[in-house]
Amino acid sequence: MIIEDLSEPERALWEAFPTARPVELPGTPVRAAIIARILLGAQEPLPGQTPGLHLSGARITGRLDLSYAEVQHPLILTKCEFEQTPVLTEARTGLVDLTASRAPGLQAVAAVIGGTLRLEDCEMAGPIQLTGAHVSRTLNLSGAAIHAPHAVHADGLTIDRDLLCANTVIDGELRLTGARIGGTMTLDGARVGQSGGFSLAAEGVVIDGGLSCTRGFHSWGELNVQDARIGRRCAFSGARLSNPDGIALNAERISVEGGLRIDDGFTAEGEVLLRGARVAGSLRLAHANLTNPRKRALNAPVMEIGSGLRLTPGFAANGQVFLDSTQVRGSVNLDGATLSNPGATALSLRRLAITGRLSCSEGFQADGEITLINTRIEGSLEFHGAALSNPSGRALSLWEVTAGGGIDCCEGFTATGDVSIRNSRITATLCLAQTTVDGELHLRGAEAASLKIGPQTQLLGTVDLRHTRVGVLDDTPSRWPAHVLMNGFTYDGLEAPLPVQERLDWLAKETYQPQPYEQLATVYRRQGHDEAARDVLLAKQRRHRSGQRLGARLWGHVQDWTVGYGYRPLRAALWLATLLLIGTIVFTAHRPPALKPGEAPPFNAFIYTLDLLLPIISFGQESAFGPRGAQQWLAAATITAGWILATTILAGLTRALSRP
Which domain of life is it from (predicted)? Predict the structure, then answer.
């Protein structure tokens, strides 16, 4: 090249190259071809010096095309303005520094950058093409502004260190599908995407040092890190994601070796998708606000979480929270969370497995159904102080739940709608003290160590206890509602067994079934209250009588009046003594004539009356004397009463002795 062909600014750049001396040429035009020739060996380096091109502020005319070139020297073009897009396609370079420059874009497809690629504070009117490129150190886009529908296209990009995009404005899509980043990827404070498209498309990305989208990060469109593998931790704390009626965050099958934080003011308009995610540490959504009305706000089934799931305090979701088939080592905490999906399921926890406890307490609110089906919780399940509302259906459904601790629905728990705890196994207490249920309470088939109904419990609808089993029934009988279904309800003991009348009033709340009476009597016997057990069984017979036909009812009344169905044996003795006294007095005053005067034994009114009363047994008086007139009617009545007493006593004794 003839040096005389260079302009004075270009000559200064030519002369500065051998020693890498910075050249500042504010607004001065410099031909891109001259820059390329200098970098490609037109200017010889000086012995003992490190050459490099360091230009600042110039206006680069023409196209800087280094396609397929091998550039061994640093290329530093800061605060420059490029007329045309620089091209580094499949080039091999060292450091490339375009800090604070303006250009129509950058093409560096399959380029190998042997140092840092610095594009911080750049303004690009077109896309940055980095597909298949390899940056051996850091790619720095911090503070850059890129305006293009496909703003950064970097599928398959490899960065050995960090990708820095702090406070970057990317007015379009940042595409990193299949990229590999050896350090961290930082998007703190960045603004990325356009409505209706993708903000970050990073399916299958591998980020060894972690992903940070915090401190004012804002995404328009879908942020997609599906199938990504993130080392250390992944943080969206304080981020704002906006893609109404679509997916705001797609982290399906993401794998995070540390914790995943979606908290501290995080907001999302649209679905947050975490299906199949694997998080080795904890997943935090405290102070997060998710909005996807009538759809799934948090769609996170089949997750594996290694150290707890925390959605408290301040978590709010407008739309369904869906966590089916998720496994959590540690506890799940939703204390103080607010869920809203009116008329539908607000929280779905089917087939959930937790090694710790599940807490929905301390101000937890849900407008919509809370559903746990076939769920295993090794600790306790806590809803104390929670407020649930689903007036048109079930507010809380716990079906086939296994709890290693208790289920705590007390201390101010309220439910507007039905509460259903069916076929569940509860190792400790099912607590409904200080509880208000404005709807039906279904406990059918549940098992618990104890069931607690306190004096402040308000159950305003039907309670279904059918086939429920508890160890200890710790209740206040008066707090049960007007209608209770308890056929098949079994319990081993009563915390407060007496007074028995309160228990009988409790049993009267159900249409007659024999089993509840038998169960209560069994418990009374076990606890040593034999008299109370007899009272219960007598009440059982009386209720049973009310549903019988007229003849059976009459016979039942006779058994009741005479011997209390066998449970009042002293009553039979009283009847016998009364009839014996009446007969003795009457027959003493009016002795019946002997049938055979010469052969009759001496008359004894007492023995005669006793002979009339006792069937089968004979003392010889009845057969020897024959009453007349009114005495004959009295004798017949006495004989009839004796047979009735004998029959009822026999029936009562048979009933009593047949019981274990």
Answer: Bacteria
d(CA 145, CA 156): 22
Report whether 497 contacts 523 (CB < 8 A): yes
Map tokens 């003991």 to a residue: 493
Quote the distance between the C-alpha of residue 577 and its chain's center: 70
CA 616, distance to chain mean position in Å, is: 73
- Give the whole-angstrom CA distance, residue 314 versus residue 337: 6
Residues 487-493, mean pLDDT to the nearest whole number: 95
Distance CA 182, CA 231 (A): 9
Beta-carbon neighbour count of residue 61 at 10 Å? Answer: 16
Find tokens 């308890």 and name the residue.
486
Q: 569: exposed, middle or buried (C-beta count within 10 Å: 0-12, 13-18, 19+)?
A: middle
Q: Which long-range contacts (CB under 8 A, 24 or more apart) does 579-584 make?
A: 579/609, 579/613, 579/638, 579/641, 579/642, 580/606, 580/609, 580/610, 580/613, 582/609, 583/608, 583/609, 583/612, 583/613, 583/634, 583/638, 584/609
Burial degree of 143 (CB within 10 A; 0-12, 13-18, 19+)? buried
The CA-based angle 93-99-104, given to 5 degrees, is 85
Which 3-state string (H, E, C) describes 530-592?
HHHHHHHHHHHHHHHHHCCCHHHHHHHHHHHHHHHHHCCHHHHHHHHHHHHHHHHHHHHHCCC
DSSP string over 106-123:
EE-TT-EESS-EE-TT-E
* DSSP H helices in 148-204: none
Among 486, 530, 532, which residue's Cα sits nearest to residue 506? 486
- Cis bond leading into 592, ω under 30°? no
Q: Minimal CA–CA distance to 347: which of 380, 378, 308, 383? A: 383
Instruction: Look up residue 231 and give its two tokens.
Output: 């080392």
CA distance 316 to 498: 47
**Angle at the Cα of 428 from the Cα atoms of 401 and 390, rounded to 5 degrees:** 45
The pLDDT tens digits for 338-357 are 999 999 999 999 999 999 99
Kindly report the pTM of this predicted structure: 0.84
pLDDT per position as a tens digit, 181-228: 999 999 999 999 988 889 999 999 999 999 999 989 999 999 999 999
Dist. CA 115–CA 94, nearest whole Å? 5
**CA distances (Å), origin 536, targets 166, 485, 498, 522, 546:** 77, 18, 12, 10, 16
Rounded mean pLDDT, 442-461: 95
Distance (Å, whole) CA 534 – CA 504:
12
